[in-house]
Amino acid sequence: MHPDPEMRFLRMPEVEAKVGLKKRTIQYMVKEGAFPEPVQLNERSIGFVESEVNAWMLARMEKRVEIGDNHE
User: Fold this and answer.
1) N or C: which end of the chain has fewer CB within 10 A?
2) Counting beta carbons within 10 angstroms of the beta carbon of residue 10, is it exposed (0 to 12), middle (13 to 18) or buried (19 or more)?
């Protein structure tokens, strides 16, 4: 199996900036199965597969909502 040369891991600060959520929220969503699971990089480090995070973002975009009085 040859990895995709464009594939890369994102560390938590990159994921936070990319998706606009805080670490605690991301951790909760992972636990609930609502966000891609991280990959163990070494004993003390995790990373998220960028393509999985991108797919999650695309799925959110497909569920766009109209902003009105109820969403402010």
Assistant:
1) N
2) buried
**DSSP letter assigned to residue 8:** -
DSSP 69: G
pLDDT tens figures, 25-60 = 999 999 999 999 999 999 999 999 999 999 999 999
Q: Determine the Cα–Cα distance for residues 48 and 38; give it in Å rounded to an integer.
A: 5
Does the global pTM surpass 0.85? no
Sequential DSSP letters for 36-66: PPPEE-SSS-EEEEHHHHHHHHHHHHHT---
Q: Both tokens of residue 45?
A: 């480090």
Two tokens, residue 3: 């990895």
How many C-beta atoms surround the C-beta of residue 28 within 10 A?
A: 13
